[in-house]
Design goal:
alpha/beta, D-Maltodextrin-Binding Protein, domain 2, 2 domains, two-stranded parallel ribbon
């Protein structure tokens, strides 16, 4: 009987291990975060044995985590840099890039601001600190520049497509997340910031850029000048639950969630 009991106990231990919940860790871009949160919520309802932890800390932090092996999926609103690719190879990480959505980065002002649009050159001058009063653009009051911090992929895309090699000036107020940018602009009538299209709400006022309104249609067509792809990175070819989840993310149902989150789904 003792041998039988021991065998049963051993079987139960193995069985419980075999059927233990799988936990998938996701980290990175706060722009991709609302898409990922909605996808994870839907996926876990359909697959209750799979658990996810999702956190945003910026694209740079997510990419660092996939290189260091501390996350399973890295969210990023920019491509990996050459030095990050080199570091990944050095550490034996085969970082695989997967596009999951399209985004438009929208400049936003406080609803009290009279401005309705700006050119790339005007936005560049604002963020370079060359224009410090709204009257230069037909408004009034001092300009308060709100920017994402330097670990953000959104910051780097803005620097590439708007600043074109020039740095955001040191007087800009840096925010750690897109949500924080929205909050800062909504509370200051003189502020200007920029966020992914999925973060637009009634608390801020979007500006057209070069006469083009940023939305799903103009971002997907390439007409809007500050559009970009949104990514996830994994280590090597995805397998198991990670592959199943990413297949879902790229499916019609997953891309419907991208649209529901306010971003631009991939064309099929």
């Amino acid at each position: 009987m003792k041998k039988l009991a021991a065998l049963v106990a051993t079987f139960l231990l193995v069985a419980s291990s075999a059927f233990a919940d799988t936990t998938v860790k996701v980290d990175g871009s706060t722009t991709v975060l609302p898409i990922m949160q909605k996808m994870v919520e839907v996926y876990m309802k359909a697959n209750p044995s799979v658990k996810f932890t999702v956190s945003g800390g910026g694209s740079g932090n997510g990419i660092k985590a996939i290189i260091d092996g501390t996350t399973d999926i890295a969210m990023a609103s920019r491509k990996m840099k050459d030095k990050e690719v080199a570091l990944a190879k050095e550490k034996g990480v085969a970082a695989k890039e997967i596009v999951v959505a399209i985004d438009a980065i929208i400049p936003v002002v406080n609803p009290a601001n009279k401005l309705s649009g700006a050119t790339i050159e005007q936005l560049k001058d604002l963020y370079a600190g060359k224009v410090t009063e709204w009257k230069a653009l037909g408004g009034e009051g001092p300009v308060v520049v709100i920017s994402r911090d330097t670990s953000s992929g959104t910051y780097e895309t803005w620097e590439e497509l708007v600043m074109k090699g020039e740095k955001v000036f040191p007087g800009a107020l840096l925010q750690a997340s897109s949500g924080a940018v929205v909050q800062a602009v909504s509370k200051n009538k003189n502020a200007i910031g920029y966020v992914g299209v999925g973060y637009l709400d009634a608390s801020t006022k979007p500006l057209s850029v070069n006469g083009v309104v940023g939305n799903a249609e103009t971002a997907a067509s390439g007409k809007y000048p500050i559009a970009r792809d949104l990514y996830v990175y994994v280590n090597g070819e995805p397998k198991g639950e990670i592959k199943k989840f990413l297949d879902f993310a790229l499916s019609a149902d997953g891309q419907k969630i991208v649209q529901e989150a306010g971003f631009v789904p991939l064309k099929k």
